[in-house]
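Worked example 3 (structure in, sequence out).
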């Protein structure tokens, strides 16, 4: 009965609004706590910069050579038409949902997500030689734009006329994210004009409340569901122009998506408001769609949307492992997170991180900063190979084997995702591009602004902010090895005497703050207000102890500061498929079979980035002193006990 009522309400809402134009129908856009700074205002330092440089010498900088057939496919220039055939992507298709139609647009995602990360890494690292490669790509992609503004992957006989699976909005979203970053960093007017024309073309062909962009029949349509992330573009256009039509369009897209049939229904209102519904979709959709719901809620004064956002966030909490890794292997399937039994996809790691960063910007709620850091420092680092330039498509917190199947399972004969690769072409080249995006996205969100006089260190780590404030050019360096140490030096320089407020997020695990300058602690922030001279230095250190935590299955795990610690397991490295430029797949089989269980009231100690804790050997039954290290430094590991 409840489902019928919800469906009726959804239908009535659409019916009431479908006769209104974008100009006539505008909700009250909600006030936002922080403002994002222009891309490139924050640059990486220290270990983050070193990792990005290594990635550019590795899989991020060479994916076009590792899988040239996918990256060089001219999908944006020689567009898809009525007689186009599904492309050979080199992957095993058996068991995939969606049929051949999805394989037609897949290369747009592979290319554009990789280009987005490639562009952002190069601009943040300020590599002049690589900037020439970026400029050449930008010139090429702009040359594919039609006179009417269309920028995409479909010929005129197909575009905007779909009633089934397609990648129209998704191909545009992935492409435009990279172009927007490039424009904001370079202020290239030609690029900005191209972006504006491309977005206006979408608004023209999908007029607000007079079109149905997410109608795709009753078959699986993953590309259509991904297309909801055109809301990312709407958000950036609103931020750059202040024009409310873009936020109104984002709200319209969410409303239209929620009123249509989709297999990816986790974010739809009728699902969220049903107390018996459990998240079940493809993980990456579920976590990226959190941004679309967030934008809908903050583009509206509709209390139902804010209630839905709160419910959705609580549902996601149950799908998170200790590391912050969200179920996505590849379907959530109504399950609760389990350190051994539920894996997480690198795509899902990135998308949830980006969604939490957006919520942090909207609300200033420090807990979202903690969530972003947990994901980035633990799940994301822990799914990278610490010895080779490659990543795991799927990973578990308790990782006992990485030979294709989950922890050695052979139940799914075509499962290859639990291994390390610079491509993962046998599954899909989606996670590797997203692994190239995640660090630049983290860096961009490390600093934000509040009002006209407050700068906020939102996410911690080695970085440098350059911005203008109160008529002065201000530079703030955050010199630290955080999270591997909990001491941070701030070096502030300005072109003249300037008064402003500096806020630094206090992580939730901090028990004591030592700061070398006068400060206050307000609502989870360390607040310093003073007249900053040409050169200022001060230090902050965070005091904490080893913490014993419980996951969703009441298993215990250990943390110190922002890091989750794990018992590294000895492994045999097996070399797999070879790629150009000496890239390779790597598989790992455990040597031995040591498992440990938690001992009640055990006392753990911390020294030199190692937690030492007495645990019980599950085989011998004996108590042993076990050394745990940050899970981001491990390959095979036991994280929960």
């Amino acid at each position: 009965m409840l489902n019928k009522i919800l469906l009726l309400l959804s239908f009535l809402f659409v019916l009431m609004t479908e006769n209104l134009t974008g100009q006539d129908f505008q909700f009250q856009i909600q006030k936002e706590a922080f403002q994002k700074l222009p891309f490139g205002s924050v640059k990486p330092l220290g270990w983050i910069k070193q990792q990005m440089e290594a990635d550019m010498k590795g899989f991020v900088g060479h994916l076009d050579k590792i899988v040239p057939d996918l990256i060089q496919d001219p999908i944006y220039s020689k567009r898809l038409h009525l007689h186009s055939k599904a492309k050979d992507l080199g992957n095993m298709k058996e068991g995939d949902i969606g049929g051949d139609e999805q394989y037609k647009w897949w290369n747009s995602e592979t290319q554009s997500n990789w280009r987005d990360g490639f562009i952002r890494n190069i601009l943040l690292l300020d590599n002049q030689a690589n900037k020439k490669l970026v400029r050449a790509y930008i010139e090429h992609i702009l040359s594919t734009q039609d006179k009417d503004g269309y920028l995409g992957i479909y010929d005129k006989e197909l575009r905007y006329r779909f009633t089934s699976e397609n990648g129209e909005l998704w191909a545009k979203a992935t492409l435009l994210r990279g172009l927007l970053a490039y424009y904001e960093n370079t202020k290239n007017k030609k690029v900005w004009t191209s972006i504006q024309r491309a977005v206006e073309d979408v608004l023209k062909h999908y007029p607000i409340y007079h079109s149905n962009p997410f109608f795709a029949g009753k078959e699986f349509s993953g590309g259509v569901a991904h297309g909801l992330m055109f809301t990312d573009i709407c958000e950036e256009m609103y931020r750059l122009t202040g024009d409310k039509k873009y936020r109104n369009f984002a709200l319209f897209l969410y409303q239209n998506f929620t009123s249509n049939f989709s297999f990816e229904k986790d974010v739809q209102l009728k699902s969220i408001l049903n107390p018996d519904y459990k998240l079940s979709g493809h993980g990456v959709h579920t976590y990226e769609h959190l941004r679309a719901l967030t934008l809908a809620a903050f583009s509206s004064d509709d209390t139902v949307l804010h209630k839905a956002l709160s419910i959705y966030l609580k549902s996601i909490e149950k799908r998170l492992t200790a590391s912050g890794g969200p179920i996505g292997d590849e379907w959530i399937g109504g399950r609760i997170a389990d350190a051994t039994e539920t894996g997480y996809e690198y795509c899902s790691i990135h998308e949830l991180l980006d969604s939490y960063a957006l919520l942090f910007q909207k609300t200033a709620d420090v807990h979202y900063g903690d969530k972003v850091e947990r994901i980035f420092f633990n799940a994301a680092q822990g799914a990278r190979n610490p010895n080779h330039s490659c990543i795991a498509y799927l990973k578990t917190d308790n990782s006992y084997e990485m030979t294709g199947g989950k922890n050695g399972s052979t139940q799914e004969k075509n499962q290859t995702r639990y291994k390390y690769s610079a491509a993962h072409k046998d599954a899909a080249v989606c996670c590797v591009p997203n692994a190239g995006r995640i660090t630049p996205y983290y860096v961009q969100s490390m600093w934000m602004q509040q009002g006209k006089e407050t700068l906020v260190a939102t996410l911690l780590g080695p970085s440098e902010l350059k911005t203008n404030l109160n008529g002065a050019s201000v530079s703030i360096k955050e010199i630290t090895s955080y999270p591997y140490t909990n001491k941070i030096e701030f070096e502030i320089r300005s072109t003249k005497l300037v008064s402003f407020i500096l806020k630094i997020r206090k992580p939730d695990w901090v028990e004591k703050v030592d700061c070398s300058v006068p400060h206050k602690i307000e609502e989870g922030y360390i607040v310093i207000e003073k007249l900053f001279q040409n050169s200022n230095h001060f230090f902050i250190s965070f005091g904490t102890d080893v913490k014993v935590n419980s996951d969703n299955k009441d298993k215990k795990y250990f943390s110190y500061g922002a890091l989750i610690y794990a018992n590294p397991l000895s492994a045999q490295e097996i070399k797999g498929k070879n790629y150009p430029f000496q890239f390779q797949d790597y598989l790992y089989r455990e040597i031995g079979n040591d498992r440990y269980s938690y001992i009640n009231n055990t006392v753990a100690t911390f020294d030199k980035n190692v937690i030492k804790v007495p645990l019980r050997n599950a085989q011998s039954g004996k108590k042993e002193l076990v050394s745990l290290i940050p899970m981001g430094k491990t390959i095979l590991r036991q994280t929960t006990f």
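Notes: Residues 100-125 form the longest helix (26 residues). Confidence is low (pLDDT under 50) at residues 1-26.
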